[in-house]
């Protein structure tokens, strides 16, 4: 079955760190760029970060640049999001998603995980 | 950053009616725009890419149009299962950005 499964969310104090994982199955993971998108409670979608299939290129939203790091391990079919210096405004459901085109980057996303909730509170 | 403005914020229609959703971008994105559907408690689903191409498995009642800065998602005949929030997204430049969403309700 083609799917993405996020994990690693939880409750953290401001200033803390958290590492999210997204395990892929059912497709050739290394062929696809991946992204993280978040959604604060009751709010819209906000793009966070993206990485190419090889991992050679990464991009970040200004709101997380310098604090978050995206990476991938193609041998484990997993993409990660390391989140440091967390702020209350980082509270959201974090989704990972797969680019819809194989072997290139298109930056539209046709497969999404169910998300993992990150809560930042003291 | 390219800002995407969606209107209306909420659309209330009866089953069978035509729904017209708008997305306006602050800069020219050519045709590099997608539409997503997000039902309550679910992840988003890709509906339309490159302004007018339906993604795999998307019913024909969903169509997209537009170029430049003005885009439209049309649901030709609203079904009860179309209750959702719809988002547009541009991919022409970083950062990728989403619109604020249009909520479609059944009257």
Describe the structure.
The complex is a heterodimer of chains A (122) and B (107). Chain A is an all-beta fold and 122 residues long. Chain A is 0% helix and 50% strand. Chain A is built from no helices and 11 strands. Chain A has strands spanning 3-7, 10-12, 18-25, 34-39, 45-51, 58-60, 68-73, 78-83, 92-99, 109-112, 116-120. In chain A, the strands form 2 sheets. In chain A, strands 2, 4, 5, 6, 9, 10 and 11 form a 7-stranded mixed sheet that branches. In chain A, strands 1-3-8-7 form a 4-stranded antiparallel sheet, with no helix packed on it. The radius of gyration of chain A is 14 Å and the shape is globular. The mean pLDDT of chain A is 97. With 107 residues, chain B is mostly beta strands. Helices cover 0% and strands 50% of the residues of chain B. In chain B, strands 2, 4, 5, 6, 9, 10 and 11 form a 7-stranded mixed sheet that branches. Chain B is globular, with a radius of gyration of 13 Å. Chain B starts with a strand and ends with a strand. The relative contact order of chain B is 0.34. The model of chain B has no long low-confidence stretch (mean pLDDT 97). The A-B interface holds A 35, 37, 44-47, 50, 59-62, 95, 97, 100, 106-110, 112-115 and B 1, 34, 36, 38, 43-46, 49-50, 55-56, 85, 87, 89, 91, 94-101.
Beta-strand content of chain B: over 45%
Helix content of chain B: under 10%
Biggest interface between chains? A-B, 23 and 24 residues
Shape of chain B, please? Answer: globular
Count of β-strands of chain B: 11
Total number of strands of chain A = 11
Give the C-alpha Rg of chain B: 13 Å
Helix content of chain A: under 10%
Report the major sheet of chain A. 7 strands, mixed
Strand composition percent of chain A: over 45%
Number of DSSP helices of chain A?
0
Mean of residue pLDDT values of chain B: 97
Gap from first CA to last CA of chain A: 39 Å
Low confidence ranges of chain A:
none
Q: What's the mean pLDDT score of chain A?
A: 97
Rg of chain A computed from alpha carbons, rounded to a whole number of angstroms: 14 Å
Give the overall form of chain A.
globular
Q: Point out poorly predicted stretches of chain B.
A: none
Q: Helix/strand-derived class of chain B?
A: mainly beta
């Amino acid at each position: 079955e083609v799917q993405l499964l996020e994990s690693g969310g939880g409750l953290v104090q401001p200033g803390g760190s958290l590492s999210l994982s997204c395990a892929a199955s059912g497709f050739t993971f290394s062929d696809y760029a991946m992204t993280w998108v978040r959604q604060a409670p009751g709010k819209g979608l906000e793009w966070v970060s993206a990485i190419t299939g090889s991992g050679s290129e990464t991009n970040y939203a200004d709101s997380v640049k310098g604090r978050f790091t995206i990476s991938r391990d193609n041998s484990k079919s997993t993409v990660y999001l390391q989140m440091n210096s967390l702020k209350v405004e980082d509270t959201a459901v974090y989704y990972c998603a797969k680019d819809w085109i194989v072997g290139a980057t298109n930056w539209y996303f046709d497969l999404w995980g169910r998300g993992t909730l990150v809560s930042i509170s003291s | 950053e390219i800002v995407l403005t969606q209107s209306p914020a909420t659309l209330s229609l009866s089953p069978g009616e035509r729904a017209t959703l708008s997305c306006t971008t602050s800069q020219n994105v050519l045709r590099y725009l997608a539409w997503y559907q997000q039902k309550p408690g679910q992840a988003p689903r890709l509906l339309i890419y490159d302004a007018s191409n339906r993604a795999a498995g998307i019913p024909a009642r969903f169509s997209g149009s537009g170029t430049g800065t003005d885009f439209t998602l049309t649901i030709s005949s609203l079904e009860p299962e179309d209750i959702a929030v719809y988002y547009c997204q541009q991919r022409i430049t970083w950062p990728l950005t989403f619109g604020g969403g249009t909520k479609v309700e059944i009257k």
